Structures are given as C-alpha cells and as structure tokens.
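Help needed: design a sequence for this.
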C-alpha cells in the first residue's frame, strides 16, 4: 500500500467544502419545477422537493421568507424559486435554500408586485407608526366589495351575528379586471365622504380568494395611494390567509379573510354582553359603596347637628328660667320705683301749704293773689283775703298795730 501524502479530512469537512465551493461558484439561481413531498412544520419552515422529467432536488424555505409567498404550495404545483445551492452537512444532501417563490408563468406579475412594494415602502406608505387602531365600539361600518361576491354574504352574516346593532353601508364595486381599480377608488371616495360627515368610522375592503391575476386589482398603485389617504381606519381582507396584496400593506389592519375582517372590526356580541354584566356589577358595587358612605356621612352630620343645636326641652327650661328672672327683675325695679314715688309723694305732701294751714297757720293775700309777708304792707281799711285750714274769708282791717318784726332766714 502506497502512502497517501495529501491531508486526510472528515466527512463533515468534506461536505462543508463542497457547500462552500457550490455557494461560491454557482451562487443564487432561479429554478423551475413541480412541488413534491411538501411539508409545513410547526416551526414555520417549509420542506419539499422540486422535480421535473429529468431529476429532483431537496429544498428548504425558512419562516420569514415563506411569509411573503402569498400562497401555500401543494403537490404538483409548478413554481419558480430563487435559491442558493447548499449542502446539508449531516447527511451530505444537496439542497436549495429558497429565498423567493412564485407560481410558474407569473414571474412578471410577481416582479411588478415586488417592485411596487419596494417603492411604496420606501415612501413610507407601509409605516407601522402611521397605522391606526380600530375603534373598540364602531358606530357605523362601510363595506367595499362586489355586490355579487360570496365574500359580501360572509361579511354581512358575520357582522349580523357579532354586532347586529351596528349599521352597515355597502359600497359595491368591481373587484377583478382592468376596470376594478378605478371602481374601487370611486367606492372609497364615497365612503370617505360619509366618514368625513361622521357616518362611517371603519371601512372593510374585502374580496374572496383567487389567483394572483384575480387579485391583481388590489396591487394597483393608485388604489394604494387612495387607501393611504383614508380619514378612518381601513381593514383589508383580500383573498385567503396566504394571499398578500399591496392593499394589505397600506391598510391599517390586514385580515386573513373577508370574514376575518368583519371579526376584527366588530366586538363580539357575547363578549359585549359579558362586559356589560361586569360593568353593571361594578356600577352596582360602586353605587352601594357610595350610598353607604353618604349614609354614614349623613349620620355624622346629624350627630354634629344635634350637638350644635340645644335640646328643645333644655331650651324650654332655659326660657322659663329667663322669663322668671325677667319677672323678678321687673318686680324689683317696680318696687323700687313705687318706693321712690311714695317717698317723693311724702316729700311733696310735706311741702303742701295746706299742711301748714292744718297746723293753725293762716295766709293773707292781697287782691292780686300775692301772699303778704311784710306787716308794713298792712293798712287800716285794707281788704285782704285770709286763708285758714278750713277755708278762706275776706276781711277788712280796722286797726293795724305793728309788733316785733321777724328776722328773715339767711
């Protein structure tokens, strides 16, 4: 046996070397083939094979990339994928690491979709900060879709079941074909006018599922810009859960289906009733607490009032006491006045000239009514009035003889 001079490497290193060479030499490629053995794992990753008449190759498409595909592949679907060639080292399997996938023959539409999406994203039409939350309890809802579409029936049925009290206005429009974008824009204009008048506070833009060609009206640039100017939140429910359109990215909320759009826009009737019951119980509890608190406060005020106002019986006793004191005071004052009056009366009585006359004195008065005090004024033949205790008389003096004259009191 000859000695091998070259370095010996492990199988894993060999597989990694092969993977590195393939990635450097081949890089990214577009491959067309039929889907085979497709499996979607709980992790969100897709594992499948692509095959044609001459061969097949294993493929993997990780979560985050397959979310932009817009449909769920199924057995036998002819697709085109953009992928990097790699090697799964543990088994040495050659595989494609898929970055993009589209239905075969739709490459032009898909590329246009991606180009418009990138353009509008760069302009900020998809900015999450501009997205508005849906009203918790909408007052009126506008629905824009085809009047003949099954999606309209599903939406109306869901709205009637969940929130029969909310008025619904349908703005019919074409939803497929070259004339659909202008029709949808016209319907949105009518809904916007109603919204500006307060008649609509959320808009549902819906359509059932279909191929990328069927949904292409919702990838129109003019329609996207019209959606971005909505005065109220818009819910886009176009196609199935795996279908994505430009309208979905511009709208405030994307729903997986038209029915899902109706569910997102309305509160559930049962939930509302439960909320009302909770609010009713809470209100009753608060009201009971308030009544109890006010009753206690009233008791406290009543007690304070009782202390602030005198007792009626005590007041009556006090009135009687004050009345008695007033009567006593008045009686004392009256007695004092009576005693003083009697004293003054006695004093006046002592000064009464009649009392002097009663003691045997007399008063002589001339015709002018003046008392004669000086005996020198008495003349013989003079008429004078003499006043005695028991009466008065007029006398004429026949003889006047002066006696000793009294000294006046000094």
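Sure. Designed sequence:
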């Amino acid at each position: 046996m000859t000695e091998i001079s070259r370095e010996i490497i492990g199988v894993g290193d060999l597989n990694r070397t092969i993977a590195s060479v393939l990635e450097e030499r081949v890089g990214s490629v577009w491959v067309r083939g039929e889907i085979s053995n497709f499996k979607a794992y709980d992790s969100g990753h897709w594992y499948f094979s692509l095959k044609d008449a001459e061969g097949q190759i294993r493929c993997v498409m990780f979560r985050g990339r397959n979310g932009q595909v817009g449909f769920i592949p199924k057995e036998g679907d002819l697709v085109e994928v953009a992928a990097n060639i790699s090697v799964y080292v543990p088994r040495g399997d050659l595989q494609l690491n898929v970055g993009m996938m589209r239905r075969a023959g739709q490459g032009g539409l898909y590329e246009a979709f991606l180009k418009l999406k990138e353009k509008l994203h760069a302009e900020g039409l998809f900015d999450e900060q501009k997205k508005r939350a849906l009203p918790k309890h909408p007052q009126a809802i506008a629905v824009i879709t085809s009047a003949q579409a099954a999606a309209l029936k599903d939406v109306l049925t869901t709205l009637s079941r969940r929130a029969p009290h909310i008025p619904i206005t349908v703005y019919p429009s074409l939803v497929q074909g070259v004339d659909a974008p202008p029709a949808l824009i016209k319907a949105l204009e009518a809904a916007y006018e109603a919204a500006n008048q307060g008649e609509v506070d959320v808009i549902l833009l819906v359509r059932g599922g279909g191929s990328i060609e069927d949904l292409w009206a919702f990838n129109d640039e003019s329609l996207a810009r019209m959606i971005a100017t909505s005065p109220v939140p818009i819910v886009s429910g176009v196609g199935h859960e795996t279908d994505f359109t430009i309208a979905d990215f511009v709208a405030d909320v994307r729903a997986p289906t038209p029915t899902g759009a109706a569910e997102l826009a309305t509160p559930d009737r049962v939930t509302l009733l439960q909320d009302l019951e909770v609010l009713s119980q809470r209100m009753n509890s608060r009201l009971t607490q308030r009544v109890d608190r006010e009753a206690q406060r009233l008791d406290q005020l009543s007690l304070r009032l009782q202390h602030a106002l005198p007792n009626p019986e005590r007041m009556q006793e006090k009135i009687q006491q004050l009345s008695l004191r007033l009567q006593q005071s008045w009686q004392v004052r009256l007695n004092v006045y009576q005693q003083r009056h009697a004293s003054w009366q006695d004093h006046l009585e002592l000064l009464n000239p009649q009392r002097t006359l009663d003691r045997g004195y007399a008063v002589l008065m001339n015709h002018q009514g003046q008392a004669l005090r000086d005996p020198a004024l008495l003349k013989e033949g003079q008429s004078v009035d003499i006043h005695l205790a028991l009466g008065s008389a007029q006398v004429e003096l026949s003889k006047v003889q002066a006696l000793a004259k009294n000294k006046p009191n000094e």
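The first strand starts at residue 28 and ends at 40.
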